[in-house]
Specification:
This protein is mainly β. 11% of the residues lie in helices and 37% in strands. The chain contains 8 helices and 28 strands. Strand 21 and strand 22 form a beta hairpin.
Length: 401
């Protein structure tokens, strides 16, 4: 049932070749960021990603995006994934047409788009850029366009082609590649990232007139197992692995829960929680949760957020829902339900996301502002080994080893 949702995409699609191996690993490696974490910017990004209205207090601290464009131009391997901006997101080198790019692997989207030579030099400065003219395997896709627009009008758009994508030695020929011809400056300023590898469901791919399969959808039928795993750790190297589950990377058994892919995401139920050594509590009007590797924070229902932070002395939520606390505070562990039976434990230290002021820090779990969906990002991933099972339509969880 769930497999059909994952792979039944319209028939006019880029056709991949067989990959060279039946499983492969994508390691992440460290990229230093002297600026450290920017909590307000991280919160701003997740609101925009999901098209939510950004609270005025946050919006006033983030500059208005400017559009900058140019005229259109018509098995086993190992790659490392890099924690960007003091561990807030994870980047991985891949090859597109033989050219290496540092990409963000994102289970909360379904487009594979790249910085490229269609953009003017002032936008691509600091980025590795893909040049389709230097690839003998690039083929344009006439008439195809793509566009990602966020709630504040930031985003990117452009043309589409196909090329060979190589991740960790596993090659897919004919993979749809989205070439940006217009980006907002918020994208351009993130010089560590050269694009995005979307690992959500193809039903939310933005290519028109015909949606395209994601890399995982194309590679999945050839893998030893139709899975990929995210092993994204705190302040150390981690990895993505496709086609195999490495049992040395987690403790105890994996617990799987069914997903609801109707919105195009790896979405699970999350109906209860506990704080520290306290008793399990029910979230009476719980929203479903998206397991999103492309988001850094956790955004939860207000009932959950308030219950946790009221246990932290000096913590406060401002009038627009942003939680901060004294940086010297002792933060309790947080336990959150992922499906009907599994409770993930997030150590208290991971609930401290960023310093806002000399003595105030920003919480790693913030309010979803009543949006009817919870977003579980990097704060969760740093505590859990996560399996995305495309064959069974499930997500599995276990603590890191």
């Amino acid at each position: 049932m769930f497999l059909s949702v994952l792979i039944l995409i319209p028939s006019v699609l880029a056709a991949p070749t067989q990959i060279e191996e039946n499983s492969f690993t994508v390691h992440r490696r460290a990229v230093a960021s002297p600026a450290g974490r920017n909590g307000i910017a991280a919160l701003d990004r997740v609101f925009k990603k999901y098209g939510w209205a950004v609270p005025e207090r946050i919006n006033s601290k983030i500059h208005v995006p400017q559009n900058i464009s140019t005229k259109n131009a018509e098995g086993e391997g190992t790659v490392k994934a890099t924690p960007e901006e003091a561990d807030t997101s994870f980047l991985s080198p891949i090859k597109v047409g033989g050219q290496t790019l540092m990409m963000n692997f994102d289970t909360g989207s379904s487009d594979l788009w790249v910085f490229n030579t269609n953009l003017p030099p002032q936008i691509t400065r600091g980025h590795a850029v893909y040049d389709p003219k230097k690839s003998s395997t690039f083929k344009p896709m006439p008439g195809a366009r793509w566009k990602i627009t966020y709630g504040d009008s930031s985003g990117a758009s452009g043309v589409v082609g196909t090329d060979v994508v190589n991740i960790g030695g596993a090659k897919v020929a004919g993979q749809a590649i989205e070439l940006a011809t217009t980006v907002t400056d918020s994208f351009a300023e993130d010089v560590d990232s050269d694009g995005l590898v979307g690992l959500g469901f193809g039903s939310i791919n933005t290519v028109k007139p015909q949606q395209q399969k994601t890399f995982f959808e194309n590679v999945m039928p050839t893998l030893d197992r139709p899975v990929f795993t995210a092993n994204l750790r705190h302040h150390t190297l981690g990895s993505y692995e496709f086609g195999r589950i490495d049992s040395t990377q987690f403790k105890g058994p994996l617990t799987y829960t069914e997903i609801d892919p109707s919105r195009g995401f790896w979405q699970v139920e999350s109906t209860s929680f506990a704080v520290g050594d306290g008793e399990k509590q029910t979230n009476p009007n719980s929203s479903p949760a998206i397991i999103d590797s492309g988001t850094t924070l956790m955004l939860a229902d207000d009932a959950v957020v308030r219950s946790y932070w009221r246990q932290v002395e000096g913590a406060k939520m401002d009038e627009e829902g942003t939680v901060s606390f004294p940086c010297v505070a002792d933060l309790p562990d947080f336990h959150i339900a992922l499906g009907p039976t599994y409770m993930a434990t997030i150590p208290g230290e991971l609930m401290n996301f960023a310093r806002l002021a000399p003595n105030r820090c920003m919480g790693g779990m913030q309010s979803n502002q009543g949006q009817g969906i919870q977003i579980y990002g990097g704060v969760l991933f740093k505590s859990q080994f996560v399996v995305f099972d495309g064959g069974n339509g499930t997500v599995g969880f276990a603590p890191h080893a």
